[in-house]
Amino acid sequence: MPIARMPDRALWTLPAEFNIYQVAQLKLELQDALAHDMPLDCNLAAVEDIDTAGVQLLLAARAACSGRALGFRLTAHAPASLEALQVLGLDPATLDDAWPTTDASAPPDATAAAVKQEAA
Fold first, then answer.
1. CB atoms closer than 10 angstroms to residue 29
2. Distance between CA atoms of residues 82 and 77, nearest Å
3. Which runs of E-coded beta strand occur in 2-95?
4. Comparing C-alpha atoms, which of 63, 62, 64, 66 is closest to residue 74?
5. What are the residue ranges spanned by the domains of the chain?
6. Which among 2, 9, 71, 82 has most CB atoms closer than 10 A?
């Protein structure tokens, strides 16, 4: 899916199949989003199949955002995305970078809070 550009961020809605067969195309979408130097919000709600190639692309996206001092966060985790991250020993709640915002009324990421509560 193409990346939507909001006024303050890019929204990357990942497809149901987020695996080695789609990573090459999704990497091109990611590169396009990063060219605009905006914080990146990755919506994982539709993900049904994710493998290590998909997780690696998420980590590459996080590293690219961090290297450019841009915000990065994972939102709306599907059960498959949570399971894949946990199997690999990654805590979804700690993958989010600080989220810069100029809007004090912007809602917090409910997904990260829910994951943190489950871990407690």
1. 17
2. 6
3. 4-5, 10-13, 17-18, 40-43, 49-50, 72-75
4. 62
5. 4-119
6. 9
CATH of domain 4-119: 3.30.750.24
The candidate with the shortest Cα–Cα distance to 61, out of 17, 93, 22, 23, is: 23
- The amino acid that residue 86 corresponds to is Q
Take residue 6 and report the two structure tokens written for it: 């909001």
108 Cβ contact list (under 8 Å, min separation 6): none
Q: Please give the Cα distance from 59 to 36 (Å, whole number).
A: 19
Please state, rounded to an integer, the average pLDDT across all residues of the chain.
Answer: 83
CA–CA distance, 29 with 39 (Å, rounded to integer): 14
Q: Residue 8 pLDDT more than 80?
A: yes
What predicted TM-score, i.e. pTM, was given to this entire model? Answer: 0.78
pLDDT digits (tens, 9 = 90+) for 23-71: 999 999 999 889 889 999 999 999 999 999 999 999 999 999 999 999 9
